[in-house]
Amino acid sequence: MVDFIKVMLPVKYQSILEGNSLLNFTENVNTTTGEIISNEKTAYYKNMKFEIHSSGNIYISGSLHKWYNQGEHNYNDFSIDDFLKTVLLLKSQFDIDACDCRLRCLEIGVNVVVPYEVDKVINHSILHRKVPFESKYHNTEGNYKQCVHSQYFIKLYNKTKHFKSRFPDVPDNLMRFEIKYRKMEKLNRIGIYSLNDLKRELFLNFKESLLLEWENVLFYDFTTQIDHLKERERLKIERYDSLNFWDSLIQGTNENYKYHKGQLKKSIDKYSNNVQSEVSSLIGYKIDELIKETTLNDHLYIESNKVVSLTKKCIITNVNISMQRDASLLLSHSGLRYYFEKDINLYNRIKNEYLSYKWINSPMNVQIREIAHNIRNKASNTRVRNSKYYIPQQYNIVRELGV
Fold this sequence. Notes:
disordered C terminus, alpha+beta
């Protein structure tokens, strides 16, 4: 979840960093006269930038996610445990204590596979809290959309487009949604001042923040089906896809803006797949995956999961359901969402077998609901069928399983 950071270090670290063999500090020098242009010393290590200023200020900035991946990319999952391992590298490689790293900038976000073209999702994100999204370009991150507020930015990326040419295993339709805090006031309110304050329990606050800010995106749903409406009604809805229309409302009264925002929501609920709601569910599920405890925190937990993962399978589909509740016997909503994220090919095979054609073009959350329903129905039919072949006194494993 944590990506870019900028931290400030106490002056005592100048000699520590300058004496570190991993860092090669350079200064800006006039190549003609040999004169030092500035007193700032700079070094780079696996995407991280180290700066020592003559004023005594020392900064480290860069993507912790990329550093964890040898400085190459940040398209894969970066869990809280991965983050904690990376913080430990600061101590082991540079002798820097996390409590001394005073945060000056922090990015939090998630990469999620969405069931639509990412560019469509991004291009139909119009405003965020009444501020228009702007198209941007970065030499390493490529094109993205950004919304600037006084204390933070909101960013939307097409990660597939950025990295697919260099890394073939990048999944299709990979979208990143992130918040970049450029002032620390909001984080200070919840007790975050240094890198050391980024504890597991505080990441639930990040989940709430990301979901809230995604909901605050004014989104025109491109799946809206209104061709059957009368022209006057159709045009009323189609104008909501125009930044110029919303820009004119922003200049007017708040009541008028809220009215049309409400009308947009009604049209989305009535005529579309509600893409924004689908993506919200995916964001929430992904964050839960990234912040759950693993071996770094609970050895017994993961060891028990290793045993379960070998034997705990859905009694109908025969796929692994160790990611679900302990009492689960059937592949359910959470398991289907897991395979949608982690193994889209398996998800599609399950979908082809257990989803009727009626729902084939439905939103992802509807598909998951219907697949799970059909799996339960098959289990129920199996129970009824098998009951015909067992006398009441005979041991019936199907009855024991409760299906």
